[in-house]
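Worked example

This section walks through a single chain of length 488. The input is the sequence exactly as stored; nothing has been trimmed or padded.
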Amino acid sequence: MRDRLRKVAKSMHFRVLIILLVTGLVPINLIKSGILKNYEHQTVEQRAYLIRSQCTLMGADFIADGYLDGNQSDTLESRMKQVADLYQGRVMIIDSDYKIIRDTYGLDEGKTVVARELIDCLSGKNGKYYTQTSDFIEVITPIENDATKEIRGAFLISAPTADIIEGERSLSRTVLLLQIVLTFAIVAVSFYASSILVRPFRKVTDYLNSGTDFLAEDLSMPDYTETEMLAKAYNQMRHHLKEQEESRQQFVSNVSHELKTPMTSMKVLSDSLIQQAQVGEVPNEMYEDFMIDISHEIDRENKIITDLLELVKMDRKSTIIHIEDTNINDLINLILKRLRPIAEKQQIDISLESYKPIIAQVDRTKLTLAISNLIENGIKYNKEKGWVHVSLNVDNTYFYIKVEDSGIGIPKEDQDHIFERFYRVDKSHSREIGGTGLGLAITRSAVLVHHGAIRVYSRLGEGTTFTVRIPLKYTKTGKEQAAEASGT
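Given that input, the structure is written out below as tokens.
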């Protein structure tokens, strides 16, 4: 049950629903609170204004009749009682000495009232003041002589606010009813809207769970900008996977073909020997020639398998690389020393041009394999009495190896494919000289393992130039550090 609740809480549908509910319900409650407070404030303010207006009118008559000087007036008494009855409250008249000279309740006459609000009112600092307690509103208004602007006293009126509170409660019930209706409407709209919002993502889930061939067609989700971006990323991944699948199928096909070809040749040669033996004695010369051919085919099969294993090892994400400080000049000289016998046999001149001594952090074995393949290709696919020129250079960040030859060159349409596995520009010529179609793929993998780059420049019949750029200092990538930390 707990796992199910956790799953629901993590769902996008639930979170969008909560956001919509909060977005809708919080403002409703704030609006309700604002309406009630504004009603209360406006009603109390209006009542205080009416009381002050009536007191101002009475004040002029009180001064004119000398009521504050001790003169009695039944008319003024009646008016005070009318005001008190109108607001169901209490009216008190206070003179300039803060003494209550008239109280409609008849309780506090003759007493002295000292309050900050009354002092401000009689001193002329604040001529209009009201305050609200829990159930009453109190209004203080000065009694002012219009002619001399002298403040002779003040009215203090206390009026209950029961009717205001009851009106507020009635309004609250009405607003609450509206709030309930709006809440149900918001909940319904939120459920519907959240379902609509997450529908494209459910579409993706249903599509992925449908068992459809993911590589067959692109995914289209034009509903939102985000879903368009998601579909675009998915389609890019699909195309990449499709290319990988096609490459894998082509690779398997090529491997099968390349491994099968030597075995077919050996089968044909061995069958021929058996047939000859059945007919009569096999001549020693024929037996020797056939065995030499079988030996060559075995060597070829072994080279293909060796190159495949080397390529597979380099393709692994957690390729083990042994980095050490290496003198690149000495390394290239050693490679050339090993390949010179092959070059001399084919009358190919090999030369090295080095501008500066170079010390770099590389894997000697992998870099040797990469450069050896380039130079060996320059020898194998060269013209008679041709040349292979190797040059070394360096700057503050990288060192550069350039391998140029005077060979047969590479057609422009083939140059984008020469680093693919088993790709051959001239298949018949490649097989004649023992090529497996894996050398340049291995070279490219070895260069990439060093975080380097390789480029080719060639013209048919005019030779080929390979340029390799590799950092002087080897820096592990984040993936390599993570793999190393996990022990993979």
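What to look for: The first strand starts at residue 90 and ends at 95.
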